[in-house]
Amino acid sequence: MNTSVNTPPQALEADYYRVNFITLLTFVFERYAALLTEQERSFYHQFSALSVNAQCLFTRCLMRKGNFFRVAKFSYQEISEPLTALSELTATTLVKSATVDDFNNIITLFTKPELVKAFPEHSLKTLKRAELDAELIRVANDTPDLMFARLQNLANHSLIFVCTQAFDTFRLLFFGNLRQDLTEFVLQDMGIVKYPKFTLSRDKLPFQNRETIVALKKINELSDYLHDHKQLDIDELEYLCSQLPPCTQQSSIVQRRLGRLLNRLGQRYEQQKDYQAAIALYQQSNELPAAERIIRCLAYLHQWEEAWERLQQLETSSSISSEQHFVRVFKPKLAKKLAIPFERQSLQIKPEQVILITPHTQSVERNVQQHLSALGKVSFWSENGVFNSLFGLTFWSLLYADCEGAFYNPFQTAPDDIYHGSFIAKRESLWQELFQFIACEKRYEKLLRENYRTYFGLANRFIHWSLLQQTVADIPIFDGVRLSQAEQQRSLFEWTLQRVPIEHIRKIVLHILADRKDHRSGMPDLIVFTDQDYCLMEVKGPGDRLQNNQKVWLDFFERNEIPYRTLRVVYDENN
DNA sequence: ACCACTCACTCAGTG
DNA sequence: TAAAAATTCG
DNA sequence: CACTGAGTGAGTCGAATTTTT
Ligand SMILES: [Mn+2]
Ligand SMILES: [Mn+2]
Q1: Measured distance CA(A538)–CA(A353) in Å, rounded
Q2: ipTM of model
Q3: d(CA A481, CA A372)
Q4: How far is CA A385 from each of CA A196, A305, A514, A522, A527, rounded to the nearest angstrom?
Q5: What is the DSSP string of A460-472?
Q6: Best exposed site among A234, A264, A287, A308 by fewest CB in 10 Å?
Q7: Are strands A95-97 and A159-162 parallel, antiparallel or unpaired?
Q8: What is the dihedral angle through the alpha carbons of A259, A261, A267, A270, rounded to the nearest 10 degrees?
Q9: A297: Cβ–Cβ under 8 A, 6 or more apart, which residues?
């Protein structure tokens, strides 16, 4: 795969991460001092008062995974005396020496051989690591202090606990989320990720009150918990729900993330067959597919009238493709239960084409690509990548418009309001201008090429540069195809512009624009190029079926005369 | 039911 | 959002 | 004594994860 999206690494200062950390802290403190707790302000001030050495050590801890560390094991060139720096840290409230209560967490800081040697009186040698941990925890019930002391000794009394709560708040305020961390800085410093120029909003800050911060941190905590615990019974779910932040008149970001969390909790209740509880959660959610799930739950509960009522309401109120599709599918089922007459309005989608090919170890999609190449057809496995990329290239000027509430930190890959209903309205004049501009096919094609060249490699949520840049030479399958030199080196981007009518591209990206969230996925697996034509091809292996969002896209292709087909692969067992 | 492997080496037991 | 080095287990 | 099989310990490997820049 081509890697020319990147540039060679730059040299960094020895304490680059400390500098970045201070940048982050200062950024937040300057803007949000009023929203911080006393503890968080003290976090900032205590850190600022540390020696450079101690600042480095503390930052190193925060960059690592977990809350517990064994500083004696750290070996950093730029930290001259880690244990001295550590004593400086333990004198503050930033870091606490580990206590016997932390025993369970501490043992992971030692390797298996170390533990075996440290506790020769217990035969640990033959145990697997997980069993070893469990066994140690078990025997530590009898003599916890002694065993903890032995580990703390072994580690030169450098076992510490670092509470990340305060830093989490700073991260949240800086990034607007808790997914991103200090690595964003270094990736940018090294030139591995480059961002387009955009101006940060300064007047209106995204966080206006403490409640928003508390709510988001709690939502994040519960989400993580759900992620790590796949099996939860109803009591546990109830306990989680009792911790949910109130959803009264919250900021839009809380609304969205709380909605997603409510949906996940609702799904767990559905798995436990507690549909009443699930409905109660979905009703508080404004995120897809809450409305659909409520109706499905009502159906599970045999509350047909209520379900019918809500379905009809959804049919008239929602213009979202996936919800309309749900109505189309579910309405006949409910109507039948209620003995209401209805006319079925099914989608007009071309039937599957069946193909028999010899099985390989590769994926079905690659198999089909190989098959196509034998027929002299060039194809790329692009899924949503190509058209989302063309979306980004088309609407680049909207995405990076200088607009209040769009960009809050230097590491965003899309404006913050990209999924808001008001996204276009807020950029109305630019939008009108651009719409006029791309009305002309020549101009539009030129714009796409220009933006591709000008912005190539800049981080953007919709644009997958490395995919656009791919050539058949990057895909091992095409060794047998006879292609001209030019075709061999032609990028997917070029193939697309040369084969796909600009009118088709425009229709598709406008459709994505109409609902950036709902229409970003479900596009076919392959884009196939023939002499003059192209075709979008969804591949289905044995047992695979068209998903709803795929059907919606195929329906769109049908109505807009965009060439597509669904290929059903049957493996030839004789080979 | 168990689970990295190889390699060189020791050592007790056997004929 | 990349790539390589280091660590760890088995 | 020659041979065997069990056990040991060191070193290494691959895969997965974590850390670094
Ligand atoms: Mn697919
Ligand atoms: Mn498929």
Answers
A1: 10
A2: 0.71
A3: 10
A4: 20, 42, 18, 11, 10
A5: -SS--HHHHH--G
A6: A234
A7: antiparallel
A8: -80
A9: A270, A275, A276, A278, A279, A282
Q: Which residues contact A81 (CB under 8 A, 6 or more apart)?
A: A53
Indicate if CB(A64) is under 7 A from strand D: yes
Tell me the sheet residues that pair with A69: A160
Nucleotides on chain B within 7 angstroms of protein Cβ: 3
Which protein residues have Cβ within 7 A of any strand B atom? A 126, 128
A470, A491 Cβ separation under 8 angstroms: yes
Give me the amino acid identity at A84. Answer: T
> Which mean pLDDT values do the consecutive 10-residue runs of chain A (575 residues) have?
44 90 96 96 97 94 92 88 92 95 89 79 73 84 89 89 95 94 91 92 88 94 88 92 85 91 94 94 95 95 94 95 93 89 80 86 85 91 95 97 92 94 96 97 97 95 94 80 87 96 97 96 94 94 89 94 94 71
A375 C-alpha to ligand 1 centroid (Å): 22
Q: How far is the CA of A117 from the C1' of D9 (A)?
A: 15
Half-sphere exposure of A319 (CA within 13 A, CB side): 4
The Cα–Cα gap between A575 and A572 comes to: 6
